[in-house]
Amino acid sequence: MQIALFQPDIPQNTGTILRLCACLGMDAHIIEPAGFPVSDRLFRRAGMDYLDHVRLTRHVSWAAFEDWRAGQGHRLLLFTTKAATDYRDFHYQSSDILLFGRESAGVTDAVVEAADARLVIPIKAGLRSLNVAMSVAMAAGEALRQVRNPQV
């Protein structure tokens, strides 16, 4: 199970997500351009010393990430507020990549089209979205629960 972030633009969220990946043993991918340098103090503060423990791959572009993914054969699962499939009803595989969009703008149409599945975390009507770090934690928790206990 892997986490990918499409052009993240809030360093604290990215640092928090990478810390989560380190703690859960999940590989992480940042699809550039990010809205901050990895030397950003807020990014480093949120990730703390956990950043040294995460397996992080930076991809210079969406095209580079897709080339890499095509060579690996991984499914790409996009988490978006514009999906109809509840993330709890989806059947995950251990080789899946869970993809989350930019906090300020989501993902491009090309990313939506490339996704093998589009999943939503349902929230109360009238509200826009969850914080991306919270969404990653919820999605990772459900996906890992399923692949570690496949009877469920």
TrEMBL record:
Residues 2-139 form the tRNA/rRNA methyltransferase SpoU type domain. It comes from the Bacteria. The keyword Transferase applies. It catalyses: 5-carboxymethylaminomethyluridine(34) in tRNA(Leu) + S-adenosyl-L-methionine = 5-carboxymethylaminomethyl-2'-O-methyluridine(34) in tRNA(Leu) + S-adenosyl-L-homocysteine + H(+); cytidine(34) in tRNA + S-adenosyl-L-methionine = 2'-O-methylcytidine(34) in tRNA + S-adenosyl-L-homocysteine + H(+). It is an enzyme of class 2 (transferase). It is found in: Cytoplasm. It holds the Pfam family SpoU_methylase. S-adenosyl-L-methionine binds at residues 101, 121, 129. Its EC number is 2.1.1.207. Its main location: cytoplasm. SUPFAM superfamilies: alpha/beta knot. The keyword tRNA processing applies. Keywords: Cytoplasm, Methyltransferase, S-adenosyl-L-methionine, Transferase, tRNA processing. Homodimer. Belongs to the class IV-like SAM-binding methyltransferase superfamily. RNA methyltransferase TrmH family. TrmL subfamily. PANTHER family: TRNA (CYTIDINE(34)-2'-O)-METHYLTRANSFERASE. Methylates the ribose at the nucleotide 34 wobble position in the two leucyl isoacceptors tRNA(Leu)(CmAA) and tRNA(Leu)(cmnm5UmAA). Catalyzes the methyl transfer from S-adenosyl-L-methionine to the 2'-OH of the wobble nucleotide. This is tRNA (cytidine(34)-2'-O)-methyltransferase. It comes from Bradyrhizobium agreste. The gene is trmL.
